[in-house]
Structure formats: structure tokens, C-alpha cells
Amino acid sequence: MRNLPLSRLQTRQVFPSGEPCKLNTNLMSKQTEQIEAWTRQAVPEVLRAMASMELTSVPPAPFPLDADGQIIGSVGFTGEATGIIYLYAGMSFAKVITGNMLGIEPSEVEPGEMVNDAIGELSNMVVGYVKSRLCDTGLNCTLTIPSVVRGQQLSVEGSSSVARRILGFHNCEHQLVAEILVKES
Amino acid sequence: MSIKILTVDDSKTIRLIVAKAFKTYDCMVLEADNGVVGLAVASREKPDIILLDYTMPVMDGFEVLARLRSDPALKATPVIMLTAEAGRETVVKIAKLGVRDYLIKPFKGELLVERVSRVVTLKSKTDAVEKVRRYDDPISILVVDDKPAIASQIRTALEGTPWKVTSADQPGQALDMCMEQGVDLVLASLSLPNDGAYMLFQNLRSYSNTASIPVLGLSVKTAASEQTRAQQAGFSSIITKPIAPEELKFKVCRALRLETSYKYFQQRESWLALTLPKDVNQAVLDEVSKRLSDQLAGTVEAGGNKLIVDLSQSETVTLTTVELVLSAIQICSKLAIRYAIVGSEAVLSQCRAYEETQSWMFAKSADEALALLK
Fold first, then answer.
1. Which structural domain range is residue B16 located in?
2. pLDDT in tens, B54-85
3. Cβ–Cβ gap A140/B89 under 8 Å
4. Closest chain A residue to B58 measured between Cα atoms?
């Protein structure tokens, strides 16, 4: 994560319960809105195709957290559009997603490499979806390789020069959050 | 013959999803986690199709494809590119690379199978098991020779089998027939003009629906260099002229993996009958030896404890016959199976010429043998 210029990791929750999330509304632009819209389409579409899971879009919620910890998958895009998209999930939901992708029970999912790889690949597909549409609008960019961070109470804090959007998704009792950081020209 | 599918993807998840998608098909899924390993596996295993990720560390899909296309042994291997990037520009770039197809991630396993099945013929594992053919099944054999007399000789040699023999005098005509008529096996003359047999062989291997058809070369006995060349090219076997019917049948059976053991083995209520034909040649020896152990084990599993070797059809007892019976006796002693030999007086006296047969128990009929073994 240290090579990604738009953000830095912090060890606090971004959206503690009851505390409103801070959005950099001054830097919103059409491009960011488009990326937000594409991400809102991409996340359920990718989860439906790869994990046979239906996700519904919900307002941003507190950071997904459970006793097993948290996982963040991220992929950046650089070029004529630059940004990064993070997918946050609690570890128990990450295991459910991984299990569905591989056709095995969540209890059979190894919590290490198997979950990392699945979440990294999902992040890659979500950002690949966005990148394809950016390129189709004439904004050429390339993707970074996926990276995954695991831990407790992880959060990402964007710098003041980027636009930031938070999207919430819901499946049964599970939450998944997508955070979009876009460097605006 | 199992289809070999090579998946080259840095994501283990994707490789597992690919393997799972083809789990019910008669195919082998080979994996590589980067382009360099992918090229090495492709070179070693000669897969029927490669599923190649576009974005990978170490060596990306673009470079892997370029290297595949520059390798004479792999350049014809069909490639389906998988990519998470579906932009128009990327799609155009991928199409220009000469891939057979591309698939945008995310994808469903069913879609992947459908795309792959457009390029190679996928068979379900159940079908593959069911399609073990027997010697008495109808088989379609295509003879490719510019001399009509050869096809006629082959028809005569295969008389008594339910096999259908058709013929073509040109490789192009033969290829059309293979594509359209469901040919099971090709017998091609190695002396066709302009390396016609080799051209036909290469063409058959380049189409998914003909790639698994065994091709046997027809050659005169003395043309050793021609035969070596055909074997090196990948021909299943060589049939030498003048054609020996038994050798031809044996090689056809072997090339098509036809089940022939029922001709020799019959499981009875408490015993196994091993009936040897008049001529115990190498083909018979190979077939019986291959199945002997399993057949005797099957007899024990079914509660049987006797073997009767029927030599009554044999006119001449050769060392080959004796060796075959000895190997059966060896297995019998391990499995506590009692045995007896059925044959005429002539057979008995010929057997007695071999020292190893002195302890054999002889009978004139199966009933007599069973009575002896009680």
C-alpha cells in the first residue's frame, strides 16, 4: 500500500458508528460521479457473476468489522484518469464470498492466501470494469496490480486533493463498502 | 483422449474456478501462475487450448502470446484471452493478437465452458466412460491410397468384423470425409505424392473435431526410413504391406483402444474361462496379459476360485502359449485359485514337450476340468 500516492493507512475506523463520514465535496466532478456510478454497477455485477451473490446498494455504513478482522482489496488506475478503489469487508464476509467463488463452504476457506487472492481478484475486476469505461470515454489509463491489506480497525484516509466517494452494499447480514478516491484535474 | 486445457493466470482463485468449471468434462486442466511458467508448461504438455490472463506480473498475456506464436510447435495452439479490461481499445488490441476468442472478467464457469467448447470438443466424463468401444462395435475406417487395390485388400483382411472400410485417393478428399462423415481411424499410404499422408496428418491434427482420429501409415516393409519419419511425425502406428490381417486388426484395436478381452475371458458362476484362439500371436499375448490379473481378481471378488484355460481351439502349442499359461498360473497361486487346462490329446502331447508343463492338470472338456477341481 505504501506505493499508492493517494492515501495512507490509519489504524482507526473511518466511519465509527454515529459519526458522519467526511466527504471532500468541494472536489466533486462529473468524472468522479461517473466513476461512482460505474463502481455502483460493477460491485454487484462482479459479485453476481463470480460468487452468485446478490448485493443491494445501501447508504454508506460503518466500516465492516467482525471478530475475525477486516480485509481491504485495492486496485489503482493511472493515466488520463487517476484514482484508486478500495473494497472493504469483514473477514467472515470475505470467507463467504471466497467460498461462493470456489464452490466450497466458508468453513473450508483458508483464511490466508485463498481469501487474499479472491478479494484481490474481485477488486481487479471491479476496477477493470471502471477502467474499461474510462478508456471508452477517451481517458486512457492503466491498472496497478491488486493489493490486499488485512488487520483490525483498518482505514484509509485520502489527502485533501482528491475526491472521495463511499458506497455501501448489503447481502444478508453482511456489509461491503467501496471507497473511491479520484485525483481531479 | 482427454483434452488438455492450460490456464495461465496469476490468480489462484481464477485457476481454481477454471478447474471447477471443467470438472465434469473429460479433460485435464493444467495450471501456471505466470507467463514464463505457462510457456514452459505449454512446451512440455502441448495443451489443446490455452486460457491466458492478459494482465500478469513477470510476463503479461501479450508477450506470452507473441512467444507462443513464434514457436513452431505451439503456434497453432488456440488461445482464449481472459481480461478484466473490456474497453474497446483493449478488445481491438486483443483481437489483433490472433487469439481465438476473449472473455471479459467477471465470467461464469458455464460461459467459459461454452467458449472453450467452440474451439475444442469437450466430452463429459460420463460419455467418455460410456464410449469405451468393443471389438464388435461398428468402426469406420478410411483408407487413403491412390491405388484402389489397397483398399480392397484391407476390406478383405477385415472381413468378419463389423468394421466399415471407405476409401479416398486424395488427401483433400480424405480430410473432407473425416470432417463430415465421422471417421474413427485413418489408414494413409506413406507413398502418396507430395507428402500427402503427412499433410493430411497435420491437417487432421489442426481441427478440434479431427485432432483425436488415430492415423496409421501404410508402407512397404522395406521402406524403413519412411516408417521412421511417420512415427516421428506422430502417426499412431505403421501397417506394412503385404497386409497381415491379424496384425492389422491388432493395430486398429490398439489405436482405438477397443475392448477385446471378452473374446478371451468369460466369467462363470464360480470360475473363469480363459479361451485362447487358434493362433496365439503377440497381439493376443499382449491383450490377455494386460487383463489377466484384473480378470482373476474379479473372479475372486465374485466368490470364484477356479481357472480353466481352454486350449481346445489351438492346433499348435508354442512357447508363447506356454508362457502365457505360466503367467496365469503364477497369478492363480497368489490368489489361491485352482486351475486346469482343457485341450485335445495333440495339445496335451505338445504341452508335455515343455518341462514347465509337467504339473499341469489336463482335461478334455470344461466339465471334466471342473470335476477334477472339485
1. 3-127
2. 888 888 888 999 999 888 888 888 999 998 88
3. yes
4. A145
